[in-house]
């Protein structure tokens, strides 16, 4: 069941990427992000309203951290949706696969967690893979600085999620999972409101249509609320290290869905870049497992 939960979560995230790319011309990114997370807040609110009162002192003591986590989680998802205005669902999902490896950066900056040589090689391999995908396999792009802005925005969103993953454990466990998620979603949605207003006034208004409502319902309930719950259940059962490898399924699902529904093309540079990312991720995860494994017992067997 844990493996099924983790797989379901990654499938929903991949599907949301394809949907985001498919409707980017019809529905603005920040408006869509605001309403999907607002809906998730409404779903969680009846479950935690008593906890909010009972734990008000604990919430007040950690409000700055909660606010930061909300900006990183909700803000990064909005930035990711915005990037789909400029890049393909395939490229965005393949670059997204580097998230477990790119988490090394905030982990080192914030916790000074040491990186051993093998993890360093893994990080460089993943970074090479991301570079191949961003440049479309044309290294002359590096000299001309002619990057696809959408791919660079994807990297920015991934770094935001990586910082979120690094900081999340600092929340006290006494808050509880559901209460923590509600507060993170609420603070993130509130922080996103000014950007939604600016987008509405100066760029594009959010359309009220069957399509927009359907997308909000899907992204708000199965993805924002459901996928996080599935993923958390899977991580608790099999651990974060083994669960992390399931994120490699996101580009697999996304590539297939994008080819079927969006008529996108899969190129050699996609495969090459994804291979570098996969090998790099396996190195980082394998070495992380060794670092966290308990030392062998020195006691003699009786």
Report on this model:
The protein has 302 residues and is mostly helical. The protein has one domain (2-289). The protein has helices at residues 2-22, 29-54, 56-61, 63-83, 89-96, 99-102, 104-111, 117-134, 140-144, 149-167, 177-202, 210-238, 240-244, 249-261, 268-292. The chain starts with a helix and ends in a 10-residue tail after the last helix.
Q: What is the topology?
A:
Blueprint: H1 2-22, H2 29-54, H3 56-61, H4 63-83, H5 89-96, H6 99-102, H7 104-111, H8 117-134, H9 140-144, H10 149-167, H11 177-202, H12 210-238, H13 240-244, H14 249-261, H15 268-292
Helix pairs in contact: 1-5, 1-12, 1-14, 2-4, 2-11, 2-12, 4-10, 4-11, 5-10, 5-14, 5-15, 7-10, 8-15
Largest sheet: none
Q: Give the terminus-to-terminus CA distance.
A: 37 Å
Structural class: mainly alpha
What's the alpha carbon Rg, rounded to whole Å?
Answer: 20 Å
Task: Give a short overview.
The protein has 15 helices and no strands. With 302 residues, the chain is mainly alpha-helical. The longest helix has 29 residues, at 210-238.
Summary tags:
single chain, 302 residues, mainly alpha, 15 helices, globular
């Amino acid at each position: 069941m844990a493996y099924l939960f983790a797989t379901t979560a990654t499938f929903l995230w991949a599907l949301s990427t394809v949907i985001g790319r498919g409707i980017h011309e019809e529905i603005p990114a920040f408006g869509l992000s605001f309403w999907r997370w607002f809906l998730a807040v409404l779903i969680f609110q009846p479950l935690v309203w008593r906890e909010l009162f009972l734990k008000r002192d604990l919430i007040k003591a950690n409000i700055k951290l909660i606010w930061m986590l909300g900006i990183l989680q909700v803000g990064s998802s909005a930035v990711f949706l915005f990037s789909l205005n400029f890049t393909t669902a395939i490229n965005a999902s393949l670059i997204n696969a580097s998230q477990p490896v790119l988490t090394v950066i905030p982990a080192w900056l914030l916790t000074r967690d040491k990186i051993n040589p093998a993890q360093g090689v893994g990080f460089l391999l993943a970074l090479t893979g991301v570079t191949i995908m961003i440049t479309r396999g044309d290294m002359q792009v590096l000299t001309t600085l002619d990057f696809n802005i959408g791919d660079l925005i994807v990297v920015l969103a991934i770094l935001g999620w990586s910082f979120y993953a690094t900081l999340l454990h600092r929340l006290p466990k006494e808050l509880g999972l559901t209460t923590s998620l509600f507060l993170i979603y609420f603070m993130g949605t509130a922080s996103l409101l000014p950007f939604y207003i600016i987008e509405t006034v100066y760029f594009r208004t959010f359309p009220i249509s069957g399509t927009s409502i359907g997308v909000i319902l899907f992204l708000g309930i199965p993805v924002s609320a459901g996928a996080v719950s599935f993923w958390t259940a899977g991580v608790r059962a099999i651990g974060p290290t083994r669960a992390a490898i399931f994120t490699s399924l996101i580009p697999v699902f996304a590539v297939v869905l994008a080819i079927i529904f969006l008529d996108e093309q899969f190129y050699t540079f996609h495969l090459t870049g994804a291979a570098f990312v996969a090998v790099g991720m396996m190195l980082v995860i394998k070495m992380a497992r060794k670092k966290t494994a308990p030392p062998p017992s020195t006691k003699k067997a009786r």
